[in-house]
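Project standup — Tuesday

K.O.: blocked on the structure for the chain from last sprint. Re-posting the sequence here as requested.
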Amino acid sequence: MGIAERKNRQKQALRERILDAARRIVMREGFAALSMRKIADAIEYSPATLYLHFASRDEIAQALCAEGYAQLLETFVPLAGIADPAERLKALGRAYVAFGVAHPETYRLIFMEDPSYTGAALGGAAKGKAVAGDGNGITASDEASGEAAAPEDDPGEAALHIMISALEELKAAGRLSASMDVAVWAEAFWANLHGIVALNLTCPVFPSAPLDTVVEVALGAWLGTSHATQPQSTKTTAGTRKKKSPDVRTESSEESEPEPDNEPAAQPSAKKSAKAANGVSVPAPRRKATSA
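H.V.: unblocked you, prediction finished:
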């Protein structure tokens, strides 16, 4: 190993130590606690040494965001092999929310701290959107093989391509409108997922239902198919109950009817027995004549 190569390895190793220390601080104390001095203390170097590798705290934050988004992409890549595009998108949605819940500080840093950090994480996503607008998205087979969505590629572009490809397949199969702009659809879908994660991280009263339930309802509203049948089955059940309820009322009324019928029947029999006790053989005509 030459001197130059050894120095490069040492430089790269120190860079990784800096990022590891910064990541631990962010995860433990939040991004607001991150400072060049605190990182330097953690790795036992002078702050001046850090500036040989990173120009500022923001540059470290951007590097952490890029790493975090690459980690998110790693959870997406295996899902690209799901055959049905709608089910693939649902799986991607679940993985996205799960990542935000499992790595809250990383998610905050990427998407909720500074727009420049998000831009650093997404990288060439805008280029991916342009490609998607031309209708030349990568195929599911390319994604499944990892050729187009490998973690080594730009994370933002690769993640977008996985989603765009599934939408293109839905559109080609007639399951999305032919006039639908899949790039706009993907952004709206992403915004919905981000809203769920952001509310879960910041709003103490959200969600009122289990988070998994909220996610499934959102996915069903967007992608329908199997999930869309759930609300229909619920309506059917409610309708069945409504149909059953008149039957129940009819049965209860029929059960209550014999009681009034028995009461009038008991009254004439009581009168007859009383009249028989008085020795009157033809009670009806005499009572009418008396009353008249």
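K.O.: great, moving the ticket to review. Residues 125-151, 227-292 have pLDDT under 50 and may be disordered. Residues 79 and 88 are 6 Å apart (CA to CA).
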